[in-house]
Amino acid sequence: MDDAPVNLKLMRLLLTHEGYEVRTAERAEDALLMLSSYRPELILADLQLPGMNGLEMTRRVKQNPQTKAIRVVALTACAMAGDRERALGAGCDDYISKPIDTAALAFRVRQLLAPDAGTPAKDEAQRPGEPAQAIFGSEIETLRRGFLHEGSEYCRQLLDSMKSGFDAARAAGQLHQWVGSAALLGHSEISLLVQRAEQLLREEPLVVPELREVVSDLLLSFSELSGDAFAPVPDYLAEAVAGKRVALVGFTAERADGMCTVLERVKARPLLFSEGDDPASEAIQNCDLVLFHVRRDTLQSRWVQADEPFHASIKLVFAGEQRDLVALATPVRSRAVDFIVGRSDTQEVLLRIAFAGSRHVVAAPAPAPAIATEAPPRPRMAAGSPRILLADHDHIVHTVVRMALQNHGMSCKAADNGLTALSLIRSEQPHVAILDVDIPGMDGYEVLAAIREEKIPTRVIVLTALGREKDILRAFNLGADDYVTKPFNPFELVARLKRFLL
User: Fold this and answer.
1) Which partner for 275 in 103, 114, 287, 298 could form a disulfide, CB atoms 3.0-4.6 Å apart?
2) Where are the beta strands (DSSP E) in 226-275?
3) What does the pLDDT read at residue 369?
């Protein structure tokens, strides 16, 4: 249990590889809810969590007669004096300080689950183990790319905020996540710099010049490791976006600068507007696409007020953090043709812009003209509880998605292979099918092709790994309505579903 998605994903991969059944949660409240139907032998709990902290969760686990036998191990990224004593006093069975050595993690878990199994042979106890990258390859590279890009973007934002409006608590929360993520991904230099920044944030008074220097070093490390500044943009994306007039409404100076850099690289034409500008103005109406930056300072804008008239001719994309997008009223969210959640990398932003402008015309990577796919049959609007079919071979994804959909009034059936998924789609014709492209039996592309060939009136969202743009292009050429990249945000998936169902 950890509030950093990268930590959760990587630890789950490592422990699953060792043969353990692993479930994850980002909040203590979610973990306690999960315990009503699932009894793990061990809980790895971060002490610093949003909402209920890890210590309070441990007390509740140990006070409940049905769960008190579960072993709980506390994790923390900033080992303060007395932390171990507080953890043990709350009922934790052990305590591990971050950063955690990935090679030693499985060995430590085996020790915790089988303390009487004896001491391992000397060569087993001391061998370094395979690095995570060698075991998981592209999955780890996907996490690494996302982590490094997010880090470089947030460091720029943090440096800018030091001029005015600096939020030390928010900065500390983000840095706390990075300590574990950096170490698990093998970037010890970042982990050390983050720990130094955390130490400075705890000192009173705060020495801003010294903190700025450390964050600048962090930005340099993130940028050098990610190579974002030199990453080429695929030709098919550049061609799809080139020449488009893109209105950027309500963006902070820092985010606007970043978006303009991305758009100008592909010869698009970004135009800047204030959140107070009239949506009906000729300048905005003449744009091919409008990106509105949803944040606390723009939530009172007429652009995001449910009782304000909205011009349906505008192709609107909402960009922002999850917490701000969640704050939008449902009728307002339904205005968007797409969402850019968090700080997506360059290619993800360009993909969203390209497909928001034209959902069924995709620029192919080959020199041949783009293929205009046949529009899918007109889908039925949901009456009552919308029916969703999820096809994914990962049962943890099944659990997380089903809970998220049920919380939003949707019913969900799951299939772990393509043959079963297609059979259910044929017999039940759900409103939306969510297809992982890598499911066994028939893969997601084959299921999608069959849905379109048989003219089944079901919307299709494909799931694919981050950084696999060709997967997304292939899916859109086959008639997909949208895509979500893994690891995905449950809110983002729900928001995309609701856009089809309203």
Assistant:
1) 298
2) 245-249, 269-273
3) 38
Helix residue spans in 165-234 (DSSP H): 168-184, 188-202, 208-226
Angle at CA 333, nearest 5°, toward 390 and 316? 105
Q: For the chain, list residues with pLDDT below 50.
A: 117-137, 228-230, 360-376, 382
The pLDDT tens digits of the residues spanning 147-168 come to 787 788 788 888 878 877 788 8
462 vs 484: CA distance, rounded Å: 6
End-to-end CA distance of the chain: 34
Query: Percent of the chain, pLDDT > 70?
Result: 79
- Structural domain span for residue 271: 235-358
Q: Is residue 30 one of the residues assigned to a domain?
A: yes
Helix segments in 358-489, DSSP class H: 395-407, 418-428, 444-453, 469-478
What are the pLDDT digits (tens) for 402-448?
A: 888 888 888 899 998 999 999 999 999 999 999 998 888 889 999 99
Q: Which of 209, 230, 251 is the last residue of a domain?
A: 230
Assign residue 282 the CATH number of its domain: 3.40.50.2300
Task: Examine the fold and report which residue of 165, 195, 230 is the final residue of a domain before the chain moves on.
Answer: 230
For residue 366 the two structure tokens come to 């080959």
The pTM score is: 0.48
Regarding whether 150 and 101 lie in a shared domain, the answer is no
Give the distance, in angstroms, between the CA of residue 494 and the centroid of all CA atoms in the same chain: 13
Instruction: Tell me, rounded to whole angstroms, the distance of Cα 394 from its chain centroid.
Output: 17
Residue 368 inside a domain? The answer is: no
